[in-house]
Amino acid sequence: MAAQVQTAEEAKGVRGRGKSALLTTALVFPAGLWYMALLVAPLVIVTIFSFGNRAKNGGWDPAFTLDNYSRLLLQPERLEPFITSLWMAVAGTIGCLLVGLPLAYFIATRARKHKGLFILLLVIPFWTSFLIRTYSWLIVLGKENLGGFIGTLVGDPDFRILGTPVAVLVGLVYGYLPLMVFPLYVTLERMDRTLVEASKDLGAARWATFRQITLPIALPGLITGSILVFIPMMGEYVIPQILGYGRTFLAGNALVDAFIQTRNWPFGSAMAVLLIIVMLITITFYVWFVNRGRQGREVSVL
Amino acid sequence: MTAPAVSVTGPTTARRGTKAGVDRWGGVVEFWLRAHTAVVYAFLYLPIVIVVLFSFNANRLATIWTGFSLEWYGVALGDQVVQSALLNSFSVALPNAILATLFGTMAALGLQRVGRKLRAVFDGLTYISIIVPEIVIALSTLVLFASSFSYLNDALGTKIQLGIPTIIAAHMLFNISIVLLLVRARLSGMDRTLVEASYDLYATPWRTFRQITFPQLLPAIVAGFLLAFTFSFDDYVITSFVSGPGSSTLPIFIFGQVKRGVSPETNAVATMMLLFTLAMLAVGQFALTRNARRSGGGSGGGMAGMIAEQSG
């Protein structure tokens, strides 16, 4: 992002200023309007509502109270969906990492001429409908297929995967894996392979080379990938609904429950604000970590 | 690039010598890497293949295979609910993609000309729109729409309600950000000397834009349009909360079916959706690789390369 600031500055000098201010405003206005009306305004409203009371027939009554937050933070059963979400997101991120790192490493170092093809093969499922990819696991894990098969293996006819946190976890890893692999691949691909050669020439074992050379180099991609998968997993709604039968109750499900079913907008708003705060903390940690480690190297959030 | 050159020189021969002794796990690691990659790709494609396969199932039950049939495609295409959902999906995705591409590109161009502060504000909002979980955006947009519509309807006696326009507006937020990011990335990588040369040759700003800037931005604009269209076409979460009576799209239809139990008809609709979005990706891939080859710059990886780079 910083690099293009410079070119923009140069470009500005070329033209006179007269009517160009008007043009600039016209160019930026529609997008700015959308950001104000459909991003800033909804988030501001939700923040205001979170301090209000529930109206008699649902919705919101103006007030200033911290009740919603105290109920959310002090009643364990209210906070539980958040804790579950946090665990699932952490487990899902680790899952993506375990599956994605060797894959990204393979594509970056072993695929040679076929790198483009391997990446394309990753983009294709990612490009197709999230909903379809999610419900397809209903068939795969169903009791007629994999679920039942494992059931007979363990000798338990009542064995089920669907409707359990395991099914949700499979869905999470499956749904977000490419977001972990892309940044990992990009950093590993840029890696100077001669370092690995040098390490080996100096007699380092494979594991030592991996731990001391490859992993530190891949770290920025690893952190970016983890953030990219952690954030949507934390707010996931569709996967627990479909593969968890709504039994694995995550923060996203609790939000919908408050806004749509019980129509307690203020309490739902407080949950939304809490979720955004969790995201902000994660991002801040990320920015801090990347800035700490970098020396003039560009690592963008996306 | 330099790795192969190194591997033919002296030290490598020495390493090869030690390989049999110290690095005897080399073969195992290589095998494991390959096997892992193969399994992951199977894992990625297996569920999709199964959906397609079961759409041709002769059986009523979606999960047990009995025989080949095209029956369910006929059922799906003849289903009035599917037809109206299909129409709604296009009525949302197309205007959304056109407007989001237009506004996003305009903003990317405009942001080159504004001060540092305003640009920082825009950058912040762009990232927030992508980072805030979709479900939070969906519900807070619903709250905004519901509150302001009920206020307006009370005050003016109108009957504004949720529907296709609200879905388009809500989808556009995320898509403007995506187009903005893609076009800005392309702008920053653009060869400025051509623009300078054009001005030196007394070309008008409009002509410079049309003949120099726009052709260079085109790949990013095309990619942005296709991404915006596909996102909107496939989106369930935002759509389901800001849609009104009669404005159900295909993903909403599929979700409803899935909740009642997947049927072969669901799989047939899903397969047609998959085919359509893949065709979009193929068009993008073709247009962009051809364009990259002709203009000799930018990402040679086409659509796929651009998506991978953006997240990297």
What brief labels describe this structure?
heterodimer, A: 302 residues, mainly alpha, two-stranded antiparallel sheet, 76% helix, globular, disordered N terminus, disordered C terminus, B: 312 residues, 14 helices, 79% helix
Could you give a short description of this structure?
The complex is a heterodimer of chains A (302) and B (312). Chain A is built from 13 helices and 2 strands; from the N terminus they run ααββααααααααααα.
Tell me about this structure.
The complex is a heterodimer of chains A (302) and B (312). Chain A is an all-alpha fold. Helix content of chain A is 76%, strand content 1%. Chain A contains 13 helices and 2 strands, in the order H-H-E-E-H-H-H-H-H-H-H-H-H-H-H. Chain A has a two-stranded antiparallel sheet. In chain A, strand 1 and strand 2 form a beta hairpin. In chain A, helix 3 (67-74) crosses helix 13 (265-293) and helix 8 packs across helix 10 (206-234). Chain A is globular. The relative contact order of chain A is 0.13. Chain B has 312 residues and is mainly α. Chain B contains 14 helices and no strands. Chain B has helices at residues 3-7, 10-19, 26-54, 71-78, 80-111, 116-131, 134-156, 164-188, 192-200, 205-234, 237-242, 250-260, 264-295, 302-310. In chain B, helix 5 packs parallel to helix 8 (164-188), helix 5 (80-111) packs across helix 12 and helix 9 packs antiparallel against helix 10 (205-234). The model of chain B is unreliable at 1-21 and 296-300 (pLDDT under 50). The chains are: A mainly alpha (302), B mainly alpha (312). At the A-B interface, helix 1, helix 2, helix 4, helix 5 and helix 6 of A face helix 1, helix 2, helix 3, helix 5 and helix 6 of B.
